[in-house]
Fold:
Amino acid sequence: MQRDEYRDLAINDPAELARIRAEVSASPLYNNDLAPTEPEERTWTTYNIAALWIGMSIVITTYLLASGLIAAGMNWWQALLTISLGNVIVLVPMLLNAHAGTKYGVPFPVFVRASFGVRGANFAAMARALVACGWFGIQTWLGGVALDVLTTAAWGGWANIPNHAFIAFFVFWAIQVVIILTGIEGVKVFESLSAPLLIGGSIALLIWGFVAGGGISNVFSTSAQLQQGNAPFWALFWPSLAANVGYWITLSLNIPDFTRYAKSQRSQVVGQAIGLPLTMTAFSFIGIAVTAATIVVFDEAIWDPVTLVTRLTGDIPALLILAMFVIAIAQISTNMAANVVSPSFDFSNLAPKYISFRMGGMITAVIGILSFPWLLLETVGAYIFTWLVGYGSLLGAIGAVMIVDYWIVRRRQLDLADLYKLDGRYAYSGGWNWRAITAVFIGVVPVLPGFFKAATDPKFTGVFQDPTFIESLYNYGLFFTFGVTAVMYLIFSMIGGRATEPATEPARESSEEPETA
Structure:
């Protein structure tokens, strides 16, 4: 690879990178999985990054996003607009945090050491990891449902087996465990190969909807029948927008886990800009259009794509198997990239000398079962307005600290070697940056009353009845926590001294003393 291909990367000297690795290799904060990527490891092109997002976005939960909004009271275009706007908004922090991954070649739990401290990074990493474990459980449950339906269609006796749905769930779980053991390169190959298949399956479903539904105009005139609730649009808009930003706020934190392998900043920026908002909007549109078509064809709205595909292909076993294979690929591609890579690195960061990337993946798989995903998906309110808005509020606050610290306080300059040192500039006080923790606390606490109220109301659909001022803050979710946390962290960073970052190359040795707080 030509050296000029790395002109926008901070680590463009293999010899210097080798020196840094040798310097910190004995540190308890270092292992080969968390180490900066070598130049030869930076193989992800624009297509690979775009395919990553296509693979993650085309999934049952994306298909179902609009259903929750429409059920609550939005019409189809309001729901689609909200989803589209949410994904454009979340692309901004996604690209801001992605920059450090490509520039320094480090994963999220190492990058976050700069803002939270070498020990405090575990707070941010575990907040991200536990959410990923919950998502892993949800996607595995949905994949198990698809496998259960497929098996039932192929063999009628399967339905008579006690707990057959849970058996399918654990089989699907075991299949993913095998894939986890292939490592990060296996994820890249899997995503790149599955993207065309997922796009083809989605287009085929959309064509069926327009043809069987009597044409585009008839389908969208029928879509009015999908609307169930009568809540005012603006009462639903803000919590719904926050939920849709929260859908991918997890990845906006740990996107360096992937962009550390990108060939250039241009590759990751263009790949994400193409892959994320376009795919999410398009697949949500397909979900709305196809469901509207089911009203014409079956006289009822069938939101669940697994149920729909089973009806359409039930008399043609070969076609049913192909359709279910595509659905299974969709679930696996999302789970591997979105819900395994990050927690694998995050758990490894807890004890780098003892927990590898693969072992971290196994821990993720086990916790995914213990999250009881079938309970999280029981109601629309639990899924969208409690699960998505709730964790989005916390992770939004963490993301605010990361962005302000990297782009404003440090101006994109980090000391690469010190990210792996217990006594370096990112040691702060005992490894914790009190500024970051306090700012997150101040940002999150005001939304907790609303969260607890939503979490304890099984019929909650995103609109509080006569909310107090404090409860109403929950409707704005991560927008509130992000803004408050960002301002507070910036103020705290102006209090006392902060060690200046290297003026040029991040790999340069620094003689400054570590900051204390």
Remarks:
- Residues 41-379 form a domain with the Hydantoin permease fold (CATH 1.10.4160.10).
- The longest helix spans residues 121-154.
- The chain has a mean pLDDT of 83.
